[in-house]
User: What shape does this take?
Amino acid sequence: MPIHTEPMTINVGPQHPSTHGVFRLRVTFDGEEILEVEPVFGYLHRGTEKLAEERTYVQIVTLTDRLDYVSSMINNQGYCLAVEKLLGVEPPLRAKWLRTMVAELQRIASHLMGIGFFLQDLGTLGTPLMYGFRTREKILDLFEMLCGARITLTYMRPGGVFSDTPPDFWPALENFMQELPTEIGEIEQLVMENEIVLVRTKGVSPLSPEMAINCSVSGPVLRASGIAWDWRKMEPYDAYEWVDFDVPVGANGDNYDRFWVRMQEIHQSARIIHQCMEHIEPGPVRLDLPLVFRPEPGAEAYGRVEASKGELAFYMLSDGGVSPYRCKIRSPSLINLTVTEHLLVGWKLADMIVTLGSLDINMGEVDR
Amino acid sequence: MSPDNVLYGTPVYRFVYELVGTVLPCWISYVAAGLVIMFILVNAVLMGAAVFVFAERRLIGRFHNRIGPNRWGPFGTFQPFADVLKLIFKEDITPAAADKIVFLAAPIVMLAPAILMLAVVPFAKNTALADLNVGILYILAVTSLSSVAILMAGWSSNNRYAMFGAARGVAVLISYEVPVVLCLLGVVMVAGSMSLADVVEAQAVPFLLVQPLALFVFLAGVSAELNRTPFDVAEAESELVAGYHTEYSGVKFALIQAAEFGGVVTASMVVVTLFLGGWAGPLADYLGWFWFLLKVGAVAFIFIWVRATYPRLRIDQLMAFAWKFLLPLSIINLFATSLEVFFLRDSQGVLATNDLWIMTGINLALGAGCIALFGSMIREKIKPVTWQPAAGTASLTVGEVT
Amino acid sequence: MPVQALTGAELAERLSAGVPASVERWEEEVVWVEPSKVEDVARFLRDDSSLDFQFLNAISAIDFIEYFDVVYHLTSFRLQHTAVIKTRLHGRESLSVPSVYHVWRGADFQEREVWDLMGVDFQGHPNMKRIMLWEGFEGHPLRKDFL
Assistant: This one.
């Protein structure tokens, strides 16, 4: 016999240890069970789209760093692709390989954070999180060699990348790629078949493929639901058409599959990086574009990348001025949140936190 | 007045009692001796908690590939004292909507079980503060106090997270009390006594071997009662902010932390006493305290290790674990032990060392069998998916599940 | 195999057949539709088996001072093609367009965002309120006249 208690409404967030930023959920509980969920956000809204209308095309690159601040490289890439589409130019070959490589490095770093915080939400006291941070720290060191920054990188520019690699970068990358399998292996050994992880995540908050598509979900969350859709394969940009990699696909779309898909994508990213290191050849890394340029009036472009969280797209429209007339950002984190209510209602408080962790949202991107 | 209390056997108590008694009236020496004992107990728990906090933070640092606190004092050993000083000088906030008296009392009630438990633990030969003849019963009675304290803290805070934590905490404590009591019955039967000193004496073979199932159930149950991962639902940081002590700050928070970590130390002491032979070891008459502390350290290390490794169970899974897994195990253990004791004991009802070895063999086999059986029943339900990388992209039909 | 963009002419032809009087005009890769027909068009695009646009990528709105454009980017996973649908709303006050919430749930937050920042109301959306800014905020900050 189910025992019903007085429904209780709690504001989870905006200050809560595991809402991954300033995210708020108004949740009504019946005991431990969730009756209603309403996501509330906007606490980190900085008006990036409005700011972009006031800046030149090159200056906007710095704004994109601050969207999903754990995967700045991929944001840069998405924006630069959109601007290149707007101008109708192609970056040099070396720049394409370099962009692909650093974007995959960034994907590893971002997925490690996603997995680490997901497991943190499961209550692991930070051990896998710290393992992830150890690897991420090395990636950030590599980025520091490339552009001097660690988080807000601004490494890419419309028409290429900011500068060529320093000579000591390649040995360091080689070294990192040798250490990577061991470090990822340690995390996998610790958690992948841990019975508590399995019992907490398998079958919890499943997302059906139909629902995932209807809710415009993208990225690892979509693939965990069984749909092998990856823009790197379906609309290859930069050097992705020349590299070989697989698209991991989940079976049930539950929390475990979302976590597992990210784990597998790390391995695939490592494969891509190896191929980039093999194929990259000396050459120019940047088109000779002026610092301030004016695309054709009326030109528009929808440039998208498969970011670590999903489909990140920039819809750019030019009026012939030095800054875009409109720069719409399609943020995967915001749109993936559409399924929160569907995923959470009927589950328990503890599952709610874990499911949010498995969606891997980033508030910088949700609120923009 | 004749000193007819359980503490009179304690040398420290008698020394103070008689020293003060030579110059002052009897009742003052009575109080003075009691205060000295209390002073020792409280400080032992607080020091134990301090040492444990330091060890835990350093060890978890190592588990995390970090260094851990290493600035203040040699190897950072003064860190807990710095923490306590900081907490004492911090503002002590009482929420406006809180039930003030209960809010104030809860941390004190919470610290009480940890201190009271220490009174009956024998540190070395004849070195228990009070060798109660119902020592095990006393421990069980005292530990159940903490559920009252958790409920007090959660209720009086008038905070929904705290209330959630308190409700969970009490549910867990009450559920895990049952298997813990049942598994201790096995120990009592083999030892033939409830006095902790007698239990230690009875361990010609450590009960770790004679009662492996009981040890397993007891460790799991104690972890749950102490709110240690994987059973820390009551203060689940990622879910409930801090659970029942969300609203506590300053000195009260320090007391709650001391109770929590002191609780782990005293629980380790109980585990050592009941299952690892207490102060037994080479030259136990002189080095008993050393062996005792060494074993306590080892048990505390296991608690830390588990905490650094495992994620947290959900509350319903936690309940299922207690009622569907630990309870059957402890009943099986109780049943097997009583049969073994019935058939193996001699006419005086005493078990010889040889009999203990026979029981060890049977119980180890039984324990391994039971855990394998129950474990496979759980594992059946949670098989991980296996994925083979396919060449190229998988086929792309909407709704198709690959 | 990379995704193909459907040409405006091809899409417009099929749309006119499926939803009469919905297409205003078309360009290279864009089809302009009648604002009042947006929901019907959306349902047709999603359900027609030769179009199969089950996935809504993005809803964007653009302020052109005299008029507003609302842009829908769509993808079909099964047929691997994309399309762009646009609709034009004239004027600056009380702009509204039918909501596609009931066709694509993914429109939920995007339509709310467009309302919040651009002031285009989506009729039929069950929860049309501000998303980034707080209730009671005056104006729509992404409009060109908002300073």
